[in-house]
């Protein structure tokens, strides 16, 4: 559950951040201002507060919507609430990472693509997105490690990930140190695996760029 939560929220954040960056690059008049407001707001809020707002806010909205249509009350799952809250919030961080990655690229690459006669859509899908993702790998890797640790906050709304399960085991066995030590070991193993994967991706793309 910890890995699933981290991967799902990370994918949501990457999709939001990449979409925001691509929207800004289109030159839309309101894009830069709207993205700036979005990034400023969600970078200023604590992660736990966002989880509470989404979880309890959606619960209230769904209950009122069900009552207005005569349906039985519907509740939002903790997993969905965490995915939305953390995904939207860290999408702001991803937008900054992708924005910096895009600015680091050589503008001549895009000019060459247009000179070859590629349409704006093909330039975006074949040049802009791949190169931006390659340049953003180090920042995205570090962000995933942060999101992996942030996933522990999901325990406050009842999601049974590693931290909450450790708390349950500690309460039943009355050995909190052993339970939380095992939870810490689980986080270290997953973090080490993610770091190895990040290193391999960086080497692969570095070799590709050299060729």
TrEMBL record:
InterPro entries: AA_ABC_transptr_permease_3TM, ABC_transp_permease_HisMQ, MetI-like, MetI-like_sf. Signal peptide: none annotated. The keyword Transport applies. It is a multi-pass membrane protein. SUPFAM superfamilies: MetI-like. Belongs to the binding-protein-dependent transport system permease family. HisMQ subfamily. GO terms for cellular component: ATP-binding cassette (ABC) transporter complex. The chain crosses the membrane at residues 35-58, 131-157, 177-197. This is ABC transmembrane type-1 domain-containing protein. Keywords: Cell inner membrane, Cell membrane, Membrane, Transmembrane, Transmembrane helix, Transport. Residues 1-198 form the ABC transmembrane type-1 domain. One of its GO terms (molecular function) is transmembrane transporter activity. It holds the Pfam family BPD_transp_1. Its main location: membrane. PANTHER family: ARGININE ABC TRANSPORTER PERMEASE PROTEIN ARTQ (PTHR30133:SF2), CATIONIC AMINO ACID TRANSPORTER, MEMBRANE COMPONENT (PTHR30133). It is found in: Cell inner membrane; Cell membrane.
């Amino acid at each position: 559950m910890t890995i699933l939560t981290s991967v799902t929220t990370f994918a949501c954040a990457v999709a939001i951040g990449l979409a925001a960056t691509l929207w800004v690059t289109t030159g839309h008049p309101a894009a830069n201002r709207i993205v700036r407001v979005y990034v400023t707001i969600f970078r200023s809020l604590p992660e736990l507060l966002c989880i509470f707002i989404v979880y309890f806010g959606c619960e209230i909205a769904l209950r009122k919507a069900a009552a207005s249509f005569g349906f039985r009350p519907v509740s939002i799952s903790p997993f969905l609430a965490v995915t939305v809250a953390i995904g939207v919030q860290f999408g702001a961080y991803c937008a900054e990472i992708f924005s910096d990655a895009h600015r680091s690229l050589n503008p001549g690459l895009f000019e060459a693509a247009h000179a070859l006669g590629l349409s704006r859509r093909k330039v975006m899908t074949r040049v802009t997105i791949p190169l931006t993702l390659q340049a953003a790998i180090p920042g995205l890797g570090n962000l995933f490690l942060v999101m992996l640790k942030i996933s522990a906050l999901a325990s406050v709304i009842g999601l049974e990930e590693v931290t909450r399960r450790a708390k349950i085991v500690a309460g039943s066995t009355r050995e909190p140190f052993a339970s939380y030590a095992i939870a810490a070991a689980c986080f270290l193993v997953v973090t080490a695996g993610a770091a190895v994967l990040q290193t391999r991706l960086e080497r692969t793309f570095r070799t590709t760029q050299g060729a």
